[in-house]
């Protein structure tokens, strides 16, 4: 079968209709079709993201989690450092609604403590005759809201003169639930600050390497290969260990954040470089160059927005690694230090196997770590799928 080729210089055949737009054809479409064809790209992305139910639920969960850290003092039943030496290593209390067949509302039973002489363990038993109703929107432990405003107003409080330890207490008699809520403020924000540093380095260094190329690109690629060849955990430990012990906890917090951000930019830089290598050959980049646009403007105004959806999805996947990094360092004693409280610091209580055997509720801070990491991963999957709504 022979194929006839067009003569040199002859116009190529095309299949684009030259007819004028027929408004009647648009009017003949259903309301759903018109809504789809007239929708913007952002709206198409939102519609596709909503169809990913797991990602949508994860996004709502993360919004609630980050909203919780803003009012952690109000949500926590007790102040962060409140101790009760009469309830050391007390197991979690159950919430009840009915007492002897009568509806009482949410309450917990009071407890009696006895000491086992053989094992020297404290044994707590519920006292059914001591009903302690849970109070809501109540006055309790005094605190300083964000270290600025004095208050004692809480969402939930134990009964007057009673105790309420829904997730048990630690070795100093402190409420585990309250400390988990306070610890979320550090563990969740350290990921956001770290990803900000990582994105700034990754976009700038990767963008320059991909757009400029040459010797700078060669040096950046060799540095990235060296950093990625080093095992993450020992490198984190080495950098965290060089911070002086005399530093205040706040400075240590920002030091750990900067370390996590500096070591996490390599993967993003390579992704940005590969994107810019292909995008820099586009006509609109050449037009911007001919109009005299500077390199930072071309990268920031024309190239980076072209794959911003990919960057957002990458961020949601990178944040969990930073949360895990802080948790691991704090668990090993090389990260944050008291009085700052994070989920990693809370898990240091469960280092000993015997402690886990006798007081398993000290592992509860592991649950929010797992839930947040899973939520970020599911959210990243949904954003990555929604990034290209036309697929």
Walk me through the structure:
The protein is 54% helix and 13% strand. The protein is an alpha+beta fold and 391 residues long. The strands form two sheets. It has a three-stranded antiparallel β-sheet, with no helix packed on it. Helix 3 packs across helix 16, helix 8 packs antiparallel against helix 9 and helix 13 packs antiparallel against helix 16. 28% of the residues are buried. InterPro entries: MetI-like (IPR000515), MetI-like_sf (IPR035906), OppC_N (IPR025966). It is found in: Cell membrane. One of its GO terms (cellular component) is plasma membrane.
Mean pLDDT across all amino acids: 82
Biggest beta sheet attributes: 3 strands, antiparallel
Total number of strands: 5
Strand order of the largest sheet: 1-2-3
Number of helices: 16
**Number of self-contained structural domains:** 2
CATH superfamily of the largest domain: MetI-like
- Would you identify the regions where 5 or more consecutive residues have pLDDT less than 50? none
CATH topology of the largest domain: MetI-like fold
Structural class assignment: alpha+beta
The portion of residues forming beta strands comes to 5-15%
The geometry reads as globular
The portion of residues assigned to helices is 40-55%
Indicate the CATH architecture of the largest domain.
Orthogonal Bundle
CATH class of the largest domain: Mainly Alpha
Order of helices and strands: HHHHHEEEEEHHHHHHHHHHH
Through-space gap between termini:
36 Å
Q: Over the alpha carbons, how many angstroms does the gyration radius reach?
A: 29 Å
């Amino acid at each position: 079968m022979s194929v006839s080729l067009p003569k040199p210089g002859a116009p190529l055949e095309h299949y684009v209709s030259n007819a004028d737009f027929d408004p009647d054809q648009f009017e003949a479409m259903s309301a759903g079709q018109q809504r789809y064809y007239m929708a913007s790209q952002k709206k198409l992305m939102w519609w596709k993201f909503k169809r990913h139910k797991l990602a949508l639920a994860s996004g709502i969960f993360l919004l609630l989690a980050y909203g919780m850290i803003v009012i952690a003092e109000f949500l926590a039943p007790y102040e962060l450092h409140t101790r009760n030496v009469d309830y050391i290593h007390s197991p979690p209390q159950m919430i009840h609604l009915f007492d002897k067949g009568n509806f009482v509302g949410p309450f917990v039973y009071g407890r009696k403590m006895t000491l086992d002489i053989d094992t020297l363990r404290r044994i707590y038993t519920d006292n059914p005759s001591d009903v302690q109703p849970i109070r809501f929107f109540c006055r309790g432990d005094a605190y300083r809201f964000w270290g600025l405003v004095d208050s004692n107003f809480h969402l939930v409080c134990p009964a007057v003169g009673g105790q309420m330890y829904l997730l048990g207490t630690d070795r100093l008699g402190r409420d585990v639930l309250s400390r988990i809520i306070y610890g979320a403020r550090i563990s969740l924000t350290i990921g956001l600050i770290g990803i900000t540093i990582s994105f700034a380095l990754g976009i700038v260094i990767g963008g320059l390497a991909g757009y400029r190329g040459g010797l700078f690109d060669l040096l950046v690629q060799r540095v990235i290969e060296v950093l990625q060849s080093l095992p993450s955990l020992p490198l984190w430990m080495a950098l965290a260990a060089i911070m002086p012990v005399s530093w205040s906890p706040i400075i240590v917090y920002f030091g750990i954040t900067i370390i996590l951000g500096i070591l996490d930019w390599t993967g993003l830089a390579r992704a940005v470089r590969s994107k810019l290598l292909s995008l820099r050959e586009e006509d609109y980049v050449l037009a911007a160059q001919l109009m005299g646009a500077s390199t930072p403007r071309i990268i920031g105004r024309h190239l980076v927005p072209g794959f911003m959806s990919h960057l957002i999805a990458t961020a949601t996947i990178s944040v969990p690694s930073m949360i895990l990094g802080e948790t691991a360092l704090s668990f090993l004693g090389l990260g944050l230090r008291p009085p700052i409280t994070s989920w990693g610091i809370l898990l240091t209580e469960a280092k000993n196997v015997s402690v886990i055997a006798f007081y398993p509720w000290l592992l509860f801070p592991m649950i929010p770590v797992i839930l947040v990491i899973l939520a970020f991963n599911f959210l990243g999957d949904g954003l990555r799928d929604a990034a290209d709504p036309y697929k």
